[in-house]
Design brief:
The protein has 6 helices and 5 strands, in the order βαβαααββααβ. With 143 residues, it is of the alpha/beta class. The protein has a 5-stranded mixed beta sheet, with helices on one face. The longest helix has 14 residues.
C-alpha cells in the first residue's frame, strides 16, 4: 500500500515543488517506487524533473497530464468523453539501478489553472480514484 503525502501551502514560493522533487529522489535512491503528481499550474516540479526541453517534447507528443485526469470528468471538447487509463498520464522519469527504486511523474500544464478554478465536484474524486488505481505500483505518492 502506497503512502500518500501532500505538500500544501497556499503561499507560492515556499518550496513545495522543490521539496517534493527532492523527497522523491531521496526515496527513489532508497529503493522506493515513487510517483510525483504535479498539481502546480506553473508545472515547476514537472520541469525540474524533466528539464524544459524534455517537458515541451512530452507535451508535443501528446503526453497526458493531471489536467486530463481532472477534465475527463467535465467532458470538455478538448478531452474525449470517457475515462482513460491513468497509466497514460505517467511519465517514467528515472529508474535507479541499485535497489529497484524509481521516480515517475504525472505532469502538470498551464491549463490546469483554469481547470482548478472551474467548480466540478467530480474532479477530486477523479484524482482520488486515479491514485487508488495505482495503489500497488508505488511505495510513495507525493502530491
Amino acid at each position: 500500500m502506497a503512502v500518500k503525502v501532500s505538500l500544501i501551502n497556499m503561499k507560492g514560493g515556499v518550496g513545495k515543488s522543490t521539496l517534493a522533487v527532492n523527497l522523491g529522489w531521496y526515496f527513489a535512491f532508497d529503493s522506493k517506487r515513487v510517483l510525483l503528481v504535479d498539481l502546480d499550474p506553473q508545472f515547476n516540479a514537472s520541469q525540474y524533473l524533466l528539464g524544459t526541453a524534455e517537458y515541451e517534447r512530452a507535451l508535443r507528443r501528446g503526453q497526458r497530464t493531471i489536467w486530463d485526469v481532472f477534465e475527463q470528468s467535465t467532458r470538455t471538447p478538448q478531452v474525449p468523453s470517457g475515462r482513460f487509463d491513468i497509466h497514460e498520464a505517467i511519465y517514467p522519469r528515472a529508474s535507479i539501478s541499485s535497489g529497484g527504486g524509481k521516480i515517475d511523474v504525472i505532469l502538470a500544464r498551464l491549463e490546469l489553472a483554469l481547470s482548478l478554478k472551474t467548480p466540478y465536484p467530480q474532479k477530486e474524486r477523479e484524482l482520488s480514484q486515479a491514485i487508488l488505481d495505482l495503489e500497488g505500483e508505488y511505495d510513495l505518492v507525493l502530491i
